[in-house]
Amino acid sequence: MIKRTIIIVFDSLGVGELPDAADFGDEGSNTLAHIATAVGGLDLPNLAALGLGNIIRVSGVPAAERPAGAYGKMAELSCGKDTTVGHWEMMGVVSKQPFPVYPEGFPPALIAEFSSLTGLEVLGNKAASGTEIIKELGEEHQRTGAPIVYTSADSVWQIAAHQETIALETLYELCQTARGILTGEHGVARVIARPFVGDPGNYTRTHWRKDFSIEPPKLTLLDLAVAQATPVWAAGKIGEIFAGRGISETHHTSGNGETFDLILEYMARSGRAIIFGNLVDFDMLWGHRNDPQGYAKGLRAADVRLAEVIQAMRPDDLLLIIGDHGCDPTTPSTDHSREYVPCLFYGDQVTKGHELGVLSTFADAGRTVAGAMGIDVDLAGTNLWPSVRKGL
Questions:
Q1: Could you read off the pLDDT tens digit of each residue along the chain, which spans 392 residues?
Q2: Cα separation values, 302 from 115, 256, 289, 313, Å
């Protein structure tokens, strides 16, 4: 039986449009393949060895003759293409109702309630790129002290503030206030603090971003694991995505590098656990900013760090590499894309070269982890462990 599972989410790493992608404005998206083409081929030997190039054709990532892992791609069953619904579905909760979105900005009544509770007027209140809106309104924000409130194509209420104008803790308190009023029909998936520094014309967002997610409507694998004496150690924004539920320990990280550092620190411990990390830079720094070159460099760096994770694994460990949605940086859109995501299982107890095929839901990931670790669950998805486990 598996004693520990290490789950690493390559945030926004999609591998091709879903059949309903056109309904989301994402027809033709393929994050991984298009990045590879844009940069003249990727160099990802460790991911290739696990079977990444066996899932789809990727320039520079050949299909392995004998993949070291089990490989396939997963469709999203939930109605959405957001970080929250993607992670929830992985852990067994399928979201059939989409979260509310506000392409024209938030209703005046919501803004008025927020201002009444905080004593602050707001700037913005529109759908915008995070980097562009601070260019546009950053100077006025610093002059007036009014926070910048904005959204995107996703279900998010974002508050941008200069760290010298509104202190981090105050910004987080403003987000908590917004989270408190965004319920019911206005229950957005995430309220996000977006701190930045610098001077007009040279603003930079910092790594002190913080997400305030709505709670999952049902128990997830993480809740059930903790209840059954299996701690969950989170790295990066995982704890925030699940609103702290089912999380035994979590630490903020400044990016992919620190997330790998923390995963390896967790792996140096003894005992049973689920180690769960999110590599946010792919989405935040490169996907949303339409930067395929940066994304490719980030993939190469993550592939190098992945070798350290593999080397640190024990015979009773299971590694799962997965995406949560797409964010194709080669399309005109800067938003998430509705795509399949890769699914790679690896470990001494995994059948090498086992082809998973096309799986109907991300929830198969959580059910398989539960099956491998002997965690009793009643969640969406199929337990693939009987077929993935070596010897069967």
A1: 999 999 999 999 999 999 999 999 999 999 999 999 999 999 999 999 999 999 999 999 999 999 999 999 999 999 999 999 999 999 999 999 899 999 999 999 999 999 999 999 999 999 999 999 999 999 999 999 999 999 998 899 999 999 999 999 999 999 999 999 999 999 999 999 999 999 999 999 999 999 999 999 999 999 999 999 999 999 999 999 999 999 999 999 999 999 999 999 999 999 999 999 999 999 999 999 999 999 999 999 999 999 999 999 999 999 999 999 999 999 999 999 999 999 999 999 999 999 999 999 999 999 999 999 999 999 999 999 999 999 74
A2: 42, 7, 19, 17
Nearest 10 degrees: Cα torsion 385, 243, 286, 104: 120
Measure CA 293 to chain center. 20
Neighbours of 165 (CB within 10 A): 18
Helices in 315-391 by DSSP H: which ranges?
363-373, 385-388
Max CA-CA distance within the chain? 67
256 contacts 302 by C-beta, under 8 angstroms: yes
Cβ neighbours around 143 below 10 Å, total = 10
Q: Name residue, tokens 């002290």.
A: 145
> What's the CA gap between 186 and 287, in Å, rounded?
27
> Is the pTM value of this prediction over 0.85?
yes
Instruction: Kindly write down the DSSP assignment for every residue of 186-243, as one continuous string.
Output: G--SEEEEEEEEEETTEEEE-TT-EEEEPPPSS--HHHHHHHTT--EEEETTHHHHTT
Distances in Å between the Cα of 266 and the Cα atoms of 232, 241, 269, 374 are 10, 20, 6, 21
